[in-house]
């Protein structure tokens, strides 16, 4: 269906089921997880390996076509680690792989199909082993990674910086800049006189926000009926 045909009460039941699934199956897979984790289509979020943490009010979005994967690798002498801060948004199709240590700062937003890795996984001359082809990745606070960005080993991205869609970040990026390209290079500085509103402000009162969103959803879906939803499921038409 192209449009949301479910009545609001059906959608609320589905949301409660989804939340119970997250609490029972997804959250225990993290080493630690903050309150108010919002995981869309949680069955399409996969964790491989230990040492993965995520902070409060994180938003994870996944679909069957574009799952989220978090992977830590045990190389024998060390175990990879992924630490994700508070209020982080991670969009569908993103893959985060660690053989060393990846840190993602508070309020960072990651668009779809982003790839973050702290390792080359194979040495240039010994392609049967990783050898020393790994270095930590640090993504600062309130960073914005555009669609399809690739982050390579050893990279540090400074606070508030924006990485343009499709960029390949092979070297460190300073704070408060917009960087684009392959390899990514700063092309503009952010205006220090202009304040930046962050996701932490949006989630300052998560329960109040949830109540407001529920009220808005009830209004948007006010014309939907159980019969109309079932009809659209069984025999969809051009207006569905």
Structural description of this entry:
With 240 residues, the chain is an alpha/beta fold. The chain has a single domain, classed as UDP N-Acetylglucosamine Acyltransferase, domain 1 (3 Solenoid), CATH 2.160.10. Helices cover 20% and strands 25% of the residues. The chain has 4 helices and 20 strands. Strands 2-5-8-11-14-17-19-20 form an 8-stranded mixed sheet. A hairpin with a 2-residue loop joins strand 19 and strand 20. It starts with 7 loop residues before the first helix and ends in a 6-residue tail after the last helix. The model has no long low-confidence stretch (mean pLDDT 93).
Per-chain topology:
Blueprint: H1 8-26, E1 32-33, E2 38-40, E3 45-48, E4 52-54, E5 59-61, E6 68-72, E7 82-84, E8 89-90, E9 95-98, E10 102-104, E11 109-110, E12 115-117, E13 137-139, E14 144-145, E15 150-151, E16 156-157, E17 162-163, E18 168-169, E19 177-181, E20 184-189, H2 199-202, H3 206-220, H4 226-234
Write a short abstract of this structure:
With 240 residues, this protein is α/β, with parallel strands linked by helices.
């Amino acid at each position: 269906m192209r449009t949301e045909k479910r009545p609001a009460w059906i959608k609320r039941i589905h949301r409660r089921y989804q939340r119970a699934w997250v609490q029972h199956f997804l959250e225990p897979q993290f080493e630690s997880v903050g309150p108010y984790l919002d995981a869309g289509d949680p069955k399409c979020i996969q964790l491989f390996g230990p040492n993965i943490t995520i902070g409060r009010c994180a938003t994870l979005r996944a679909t069957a076509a574009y799952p989220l994967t978090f992977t830590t690798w045990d190389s024998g002498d060390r175990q990879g680690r992924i630490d994700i801060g508070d209020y982080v948004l991670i969009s569908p199709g993103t893959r985060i792989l660690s053989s060393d240590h990846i840190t993602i700062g508070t309020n960072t937003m990651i668009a779809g199909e982003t790839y973050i890795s702290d390792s080359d996984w194979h040495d240039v001359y010994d392609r049967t082993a990783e050898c020393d082809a790994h270095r930590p990745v640090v993504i600062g606070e309130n960073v914005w990674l555009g669609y399809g960005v690739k982050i390579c080993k050893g990279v540090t991205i400074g606070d508030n910086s924006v990485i343009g869609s499709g960029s390949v970040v092979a070297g460190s990026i300073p704070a408060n800049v917009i960087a684009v390209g392959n390899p990514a290079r700063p092309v503009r500085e952010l205006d220090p006189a202009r304040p930046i509103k962050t996701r932490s402000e949006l989630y300052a009162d998560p329960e109040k926000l949830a109540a407001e969103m529920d009220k808005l959803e009830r209004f948007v879906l006010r014309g939907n009926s159980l019969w109309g939803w079932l009809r659209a499921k069984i025999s969809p038409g051009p207006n569905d």
